[in-house]
Structure to design on (222 residues):
């Protein structure tokens, strides 16, 4: 194999595409291997981030710090958050783990989607609309080791969680995924990059930085 040619080809590719290619593996997946429509986020990422930066303070965020105590610490398993749980959750107070949905169960969540119509249109085009929204992870907070409830386990579909980071807050937030009992793979969230993994794998997230991380989250059933 002519490695010089490989390097030449990589040098001609945009840096974010090369970075995505490095995410192929047992713990993390290339978005192309999940659904090629996800790459629309790459092509339109500037528009999404621009809209988010203009409207981020107008979105409704709810705080789910209690989720850590009530589910993860007790059972080691994450649970799906339904609309009733979201609407009754307290408003985000600028700490912990907060969510701002754009689409829930195939329906636009108008309180937020009206502020981000371009992004919501893009997400509807991609087509994975069981849940899409923005997850905020504030400094010195995280979700401990857990796996997420996969309602399709044992059937012909799996749930993949796709993060596309809008603001990495300086790059201090990371995720660790347990590939085997003896191997843990760690990856930092970076703006305009994907982090894609099978949510049934044990994982944890933490923000060791000084600013919050904002990521677009899409649950993909495949």
């Amino acid at each position: 194999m002519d490695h010089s040619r490989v390097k030449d080809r990589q040098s001609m590719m945009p840096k974010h595409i090369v970075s995505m290619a490095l995410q192929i593996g047992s713990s993390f997946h290339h978005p192309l291997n999940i659904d090629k429509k996800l790459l629309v986020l790459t092509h339109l990422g500037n528009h999404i981030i621009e809209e988010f930066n203009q409207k981020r303070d107008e979105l409704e965020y709810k705080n789910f710090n209690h989720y850590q105590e009530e589910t993860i610490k007790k059972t080691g398993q994450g649970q799906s958050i339904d609309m009733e749980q979201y609407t009754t959750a307290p408003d985000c107070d600028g700490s912990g783990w907060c969510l701002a949905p754009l689409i829930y169960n195939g329906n636009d969540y108008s309180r937020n989607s009206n502020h981000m119509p371009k992004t919501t249109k893009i997400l509807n085009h991609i087509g994975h609309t069981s849940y899409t929204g923005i997850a905020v992870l504030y400094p010195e907070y995280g979700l401990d080791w857990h796996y997420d409830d996969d309602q399709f386990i044992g059937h012909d579909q799996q749930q993949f969680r796709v993060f596309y980071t809008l603001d990495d807050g300086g790059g201090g937030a990371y995720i660790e995924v347990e590939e085997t009992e003896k191997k843990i793979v760690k990856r930092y969230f970076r703006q305009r990059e994907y982090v894609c993994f099978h949510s049934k794998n044990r994982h944890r997230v933490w923000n060791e930085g000084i600013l919050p991380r904002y990521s677009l989250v899409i649950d993909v059933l495949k």
Q: What stands out?
A: The CA atoms of residues 56 and 115 lie 9 Å apart. Residues 3-221 form a domain with the Jelly Rolls fold (CATH 2.60.120.330).
